[in-house]
Specification:
alpha+beta, 2 domains, six-stranded antiparallel sheet, globular
């Protein structure tokens, strides 16, 4: 795996989880033939563990890296199975919450959120894998991109289920718990700024609303005859238990641009005035010092590198260079990051041989 270092110290064993996932013998199948379902699940475990290292800014040393395209594709297929399980868990949450023994309702909600969190962080690792595949012009890039886009769309469907009011009210019982507090405290940028809906304060707002409602009902209960008041209070407490507060103690990654999903890739693209060529580059939302990317130019007719433009003068985001024989312009994120950050993606200029190219609608992958 390609080395990727960060500066955060591991506090909760996520790096150990990555090492354990990488040690799974089932991963050897990717070197010998068609991976089995077990191997695909092993790859998914790596994606999840690596994703936690990304969003929590952890340093796994020599074990850190980027998923190869074949393993990333397999991981996506396995994660789609887990997503189906999550969808079922969301659908049955109200009944399972009602059926849970007193004091164990929080565990039912926590298990569901842990499944969703696994998918969220895995998208960071998978987005990184797709970005690397694009930069390396890997033949599996398009397959990986399509698979990743399909997974993101399926996740969005499940998120709509999870954001139903009834589900969010149940999940809000975890407000103030170790689970949410630790996740929120460990997030590094840009994930902290684009936290998902279970970490962005949504659950806290619902918890506050429910608490006010409970207080209003408590005042009403005090005016009921004792027997009726006791029955009503029992029903109310069964529907709303505040979890015990436990005090306890987030880079190339392409980050979330929405609060619901980690959208793994942001692609900037341009067209030549005569429409014969187009240029594209993937762009990270997070500034990783020393990161090198490539702007690549293709022929519109056959989508092949525009090698006939080799040596052409290029100016991208204020940086001047020339196209290589492969119709590429390597550049350092450090040199253009502040310029791109100060402009919306649809306004970053590109000129080739002094001619401005038309900016296309940004494609968030």
């Amino acid at each position: 795996m390609t080395t990727f270092r960060s500066l955060r110290e591991d506090l909760y064993g996520y790096v150990d989880q990555l090492r354990e996932a990488l040690a799974d013998p089932a991963l050897n199948e990717f070197q010998t033939g068609t991976p089995s379902p077990e191997a695909k699940q092993a790859a998914a475990n790596v994606a999840v563990a690596l994703g936690y290292c990304r969003v929590f800014g952890l340093d796994a040393g020599e074990d850190d890296g980027t998923l190869p395209p074949l393993e990333a594709i397999a991981a996506i297929e396995a994660l789609e199975e887990r997503l189906s399980e999550l969808a079922e868990a969301v659908e049955t949450l109200p009944q399972r919450w009602d059926d849970a023994p007193v004091g164990e309702e929080d565990a039912v909600c926590a298990d569901l959120l842990e499944q969703r969190m696994d998918l969220w962080v895995a998208m960071a690792a998978l987005g990184e894998a797709a970005c690397e595949a694009f930069i390396d012009a890997d033949p599996l890039w398009e397959t990986l991109h399509d698979k990743l886009q399909g997974l993101a769309e399926k996740i969005e469907v499940v998120d709509r289920q999870m954001q139903q009011r009834e589900i969010l009210e149940l999940l809000s019982t975890l407000v103030g718990t170790e689970l949410l507090n630790n996740w929120r405290q460990l997030l590094v940028e840009p994930y902290r700024s684009f936290a998902p809906y279970w970490l962005d304060g949504t659950l806290e707002e619902i918890d506050e609303e429910l608490q006010k409602r409970f207080e209003q009902k408590s005042a009403w209960l005090s005016r009921l005859p004792p027997r009726r008041a006791g029955a009503a209070a029992a029903r109310e407490q069964a529907a709303r238990r505040t979890a015990e507060i436990i005090l306890a103690t987030r880079a190339l990654s392409v980050a979330a641009e929405t609060s619901n999903l980690v959208e793994p890739l942001a692609m900037l693209s341009w067209r030549s005035p005569d429409r014969q060529y187009y240029a594209a580059t993937l762009w990270p939302s997070c500034h990783k010092r020393g990161q090198e990317l490539k702007l690549r130019v293709f022929r519109t007719q056959d989508n092949q590198p525009a090698t006939e433009l080799a040596g052409a003068a290029v100016e991208f985001a204020g940086v001047q260079s020339q196209l290589t024989p492969n119709a590429e312009m390597p550049y350092k994120v450090d040199d253009v990051y502040e310029f791109v950050k100060a402009h919306s993606p649809g306004t970053v200029p590109l000129q080739i041989n002094g001619i401005p190219w038309e900016v296309e609608e940004p494609d968030t992958r």
